[in-house]
Amino acid sequence: MEPAPATVRNLEALEALQQTLLKNRKLANATIATCCGTGCVAKGAIDVFQALRQEVAKLRSAPVPGRRDVKSVKTLAHTGDSQHTSVSAAKNGRAPVPGTLRVVSKCTGCHGFCEYGPIVVVQPHNFFYTNVKKEDAPEIVAQSALEGKVIERLLYRNPVTRKRATRAEDIPFYQKQRRIVLSHNGVLDATDIRDYIAAGGYRALGKALRQMTPEAIIAEIENSGLRGRGGAGFPTGKKWAACRQARGDRRYVICNGDEGDPGAFMDRSILEGDPHSVLEGMIIGAFAIGASEGYIYVRNEYPLAVERLQTAIAQAKQYGFLGRDIFGSDFSFSIRINRGGGAFVCGESTALTASLEGRPGEPRMKYIRTVESGLWGMPTTLNNVETWANVPRIIHQGAAWYAAIGTAGSKGTKVFSLVGKVNNTGLVEVPMGMSLREIIFDIGGGVQEGRQFKAVQTGGPSGGCIPAAHLDCPVDFDELTKLGSMMGSGGMIVMDEDTCMVEVARYFTHFLAEESCGKCVPCREGLSQMLAILNRITQGQGQPRDLEHLEFLCHLIQNTALCGLGTSACNPVLSTLLYFRDEYRAHVELKKCPAGVCRNLFRYEIDPQRCKGCQRCLKDCAVGAITGKRKMPHVIDQQQCTKCGACFSACRLDAIQKI
Amino acid sequence: MTATEIQIDGQTFPAQDGEYVLDVARRNGIFIPALCAHPLLKPYGACRLCLVEIQQGKRRRMVASCAYPVQAGLVVRTATDKISELRRGIVELLLARCPDSPPVRELARRLGVSESRFPTLYRAGEKCILCGLCVRVCHELVGAAAISFVSRGKERRVDSPFALGSEDCLGCCACVAVCPADAIAVRSDADTLNLMPFNNSVKMERCAKCGKPIAPLPLLALIRSRLSLQEPDRDGFHSDPDLIKEDGDAVERVPAGVAGAIHNQKIAASSFFLAKNLCADCRLERSAQALAAVAAQQRRAS
Amino acid sequence: MIASAQPSSVANAIQRYGGGVGFLIPILQDIQREYGYLPQPQLKELSRRLGVPLSRVYNVATFYKSFSLQPRGRHLISVCTGTVCHLKGAVKLVEAIRGQLKLPTGETTQDMRFSLETVNCVGACALAPVLVVNGTYYAKAKPGKVADILKAYK
């Protein structure tokens, strides 16, 4: 039986608790872990989990197929989303623990390999099943969990070598990763604090509170070289030290979970898959700077993260990790969750604090810094989710361990969401300093459908587009900035030859103009003017001086905007102007879109030599713009064509061309 | 407050802790354009015209002078080529927004810009430059909070809740007075005062004698409540003249001699000028009558 | 739509968060969840009960993208227009939905069956382009699938 929740007063009690929990976990003959991250859930993971759960539950009521040695079944524990079932087996059974067969079905956080979800991992054999359907559940339980047999068809197959991979470690996607922040994702049940404690959770907190002074904690974080993972890359220890020294009646710590960058879901996965790491980091940080209240600001679009956090906070209170006199010390701390209202600008620290005070997310000037005057005018330390999640690891393993990972200026690992036109879409965690090429081609498996790589956009909407020539650039805070992009919070969007870089710049400018709070003149008016120019260019109405005007506006906004949203808003336009100027010129001067994206600047035509008159395109055309008799070359009526591209994707003979 | 010194454009000026760079520059006659700064309001930093270059040690950067606190040894440059270029750029953007606004045109002219290279993206006749002075005056100073910013980005505007006119508007017109762009219009008729474009509509107190509108009712009510005054009686007199005696100046500007006379109880305040709801003409008439009465009283006494 | 306002719902929402103005945004989220949008009387009641000027409540309600001051349809269609979805055809998807619902402009159908919104990113980039109807995700949603997906929502 699992021990009932009780306040943990010292490190010895935590140690004893961990040992008990570990022992219980080792009793499990099989653990079936279903990824319940957003990507897998959207692909039906909840159905899979429930089917697996039913199958495990059935073990109680019916004889296990093929296991005559199993006599009866009893439920071990039932916590949150997970279900533990133990089956009493005959003494001569093949179960490693004679007499009982325990099968645990649990739901875990994101494995990061979203392209192949839903993902189910069966322990102890570590079978890594991809694209699992609910119909697979009986077989997984009967074959893999009870018999330890692998189900070949559910294994990942390497698209190049055609070989199947039994375990995660055999998959190239995972081979080059170094998972520190994501180490619990896909392994622990995010709704069960006991899983976290069994894995060594809250040991760092105990060490910090009982064996370290606040100054020593701050020194440890400073020595680790940890820099903020939210975008700016400010040294975390330095921030804490300044906040500790600032004058104020109260102090706050805030976790920024307003992950606004489109194409980024690192923080969401951490909050959903490993909420206790974030809580533990915040509690340590609060102790170090002397805060008694903390807030986690979560995007409203992340309901599951809010739910998981609520559960985690409630459980942490039960064990005395939150509340009064934590770990038997005289330190008290509480955490509340606050949901955002949908505004990208709230990723900016002063806008976020405004939002936490119930005001519109309008940034103010930071001549007086947040660490001195933040929430309610009090000293405030604000770090993002991934930064907080790094903290317990650093305290537990030491600054030297952490500082040994990464590059001279950027320590540790970074989680990226590798998305776009890349084969292995998902979350990857790599040591700082790995090259873009390794991340995109070795881990990401290269560009989809064998197309040509064109650019990778890093740093979210305020980042820049990096062309193939710089693929060998090591990824860290400083190197990306040198290329006119930035680390941002870790979005990495791969673009192929079919991507129009002018249109991409237009897309980001549109995004930022819509998300601009509108307070300062250059950002509000300047971005609107830039958008108007880019709209014109992509519609084929570019004027000779447009590029010059764009450059002037970029210069103006960069130098004069009030907050970071504004000063970085021009990176997409500047970086594409720098690396893909020819594409702009083709749009403006030749009125052509080389990538065939901007509708007014290209047309589809059918090559009569190649067209065999199969009528496939004709049937797919929604507006009836294609005519032609069967087995005769077809023709597109350019007047009627809406350039939707349906014919282009329908044609199997490459007879339709973008001109 | 501690005194310190800062350097602006090569000259050294005394400054107080807690002041901002713009305050010191303005006091010493150094021109820095600024549309959203006001000495009575907290720094805001939205127009970005007041950008200056500061130097601390070797580090140089651009800051908004309206919000940058003075520090000992601060070196400020207000008119480098780069600053002038950026200010012209900002004013071009404002000019594109409000091409027909005389105050914006005048500022542009002063900064050396006659036309904007950018087209207007707003409805014709846009006057508001979104400096926020009206909103901040209403929230920070008046305390009515009748108007606010609405929406964001390019859609941002100043309006009353639901654009239906605010029930919290006092009709004080501080917003009109503080607007640097002449973007707020006051219209009044016999009974109401209207502030446009907010649709705020406020009832007017009318002269008890001749019926002419005098002042916005909610504003009078607020003054009375702040001074703990009762509503005036039917004749327009307050029932408690003692309160006025204490703080006569707060109700309205009273000539020193008259205030003294009231204080020495030579004349009854109630009969003299406490009739709150009289228009200027009727008040003049009543005061003349009161003075004549006092004079007659004194004649009789002597 | 709930026509008659239940006066307690605003008070309940305030109480849920301990009454502080710092929780104005989550309180508004809860009111919106209950009514489908933010009705005027509820905002006025909220302003009164929290002691926050109505102008500020209105400012917040119009600043954040997730709030609607107009009644919305029974089913909410959210099209993800994050970068990856954009690159993989979210624009065409929106056009297809607008065509299907006969919604050239505006966001709610006449019969109040559907409201259409675009959202920045739902963080499910592996499934791009993503369409979310009442919280259910539809992966790799191509324009051709729209009619089939929407059929299920009456």
Helix content estimate of chain C = 40-55%
Query: What name is given to the CATH topology of the largest domain in chain C?
Result: Glutaredoxin
Shape of chain B: globular
The largest chain-to-chain contact, stated as pair and per-chain residue counts, equals: A-C, 54 and 40 residues
Low-confidence stretches of chain C: none
Main sheet: strands, sense, barrel of chain C = 4 strands, mixed
Task: Identify the strand order in the major beta sheet of chain C.
Answer: 2-1-3-4
- The termini of chain B sit apart by 56 Å
Detailed description of the structure:
The complex is a heterotrimer of chains A (659), B (302) and C (154). Chain A contains 25 helices and 21 strands. Chain A is α/β, with parallel strands linked by helices. In chain A, helix 8 crosses helix 11 and helix 18 packs antiparallel against helix 22. Helix content of chain C is 43%, strand content 12%. Chain C has a four-stranded mixed sheet, with helices on one face. The radius of gyration of chain C is 17 Å and the shape is elongated.
Short description:
The complex is a heterotrimer of chains A (659), B (302) and C (154). With 302 residues, chain B is α+β, with helices and mostly antiparallel strands. Chain B has eleven helices and eleven strands.
Question: What keywords describe this structure?
Answer:
heterotrimer; A: about 650 residues; alpha/beta; Glutaredoxin; Rossmann fold; Ubiquitin-like (UB roll); 5 domains; 25 helices; about 40% helix; about 15% strand; B: about 300 residues; alpha+beta; 3 domains; 4-stranded antiparallel β-sheet; 11 helices; about 20% strand
What topology does this entry show?
The complex is a heterotrimer of chains A (659), B (302) and C (154).
Chain A: H1 11-27, E1 30-35, H2 38-42, H3 45-61, E2 70-79, E3 82-89, E4 100-108, E5 120-123, E6 127-129, H4 137-147, E7 156-157, E8 164-165, H5 172-175, H6 193-198, H7 203-211, H8 214-224, H9 236-245, E9 252-257, H10 266-273, H11 275-289, E10 293-298, H12 303-318, E11 334-339, H13 349-356, E12 380-384, H14 385-397, H15 399-403, E13 413-420, E14 426-431, H16 436-443, E15 453-458, E16 464-467, H17 477-482, E17 491-496, H18 501-515, H19 521-538, H20 546-560, H21 564-568, H22 571-579, H23 581-590, E18 604-606, H24 616-620, E19 626-627, E20 635-636, H25 646-650, E21 656-658
Parallel strand pairs in A: 1-4, 9-10, 9-12, 10-11, 13-17
Antiparallel strand pairs in A: 1-5, 2-3, 3-4, 5-6, 7-8, 13-14, 15-16, 15-17, 18-21, 19-20
Helix pairs in contact in A: 3-4, 7-11, 7-14, 8-9, 8-11, 10-11, 10-12, 11-14, 18-19, 18-22, 19-20, 20-22
Chain B: E1 3-8, E2 11-16, H1 21-27, E3 51-56, E4 59-64, E5 75-77, H2 81-97, H3 102-110, H4 133-142, E6 148-150, E7 157-159, H5 174-178, E8 185-188, E9 192-196, E10 200-206, E11 213-216, H6 217-226, H7 241-246, H8 248-251, H9 256-263, H10 269-272, H11 280-301
Parallel strand pairs in B: 1-5
Antiparallel strand pairs in B: 1-2, 3-4, 3-5, 6-7, 8-9, 9-10, 10-11
Helix pairs in contact in B: 2-3
Chain C: H1 7-16, H2 24-35, H3 40-50, H4 54-63, E1 75-80, H5 83-87, H6 90-101, E2 114-119, E3 131-133, E4 136-138, H7 146-151
Parallel strand pairs in C: 1-2
Antiparallel strand pairs in C: 1-3, 3-4
Helix pairs in contact in C: 1-2, 1-3, 3-4
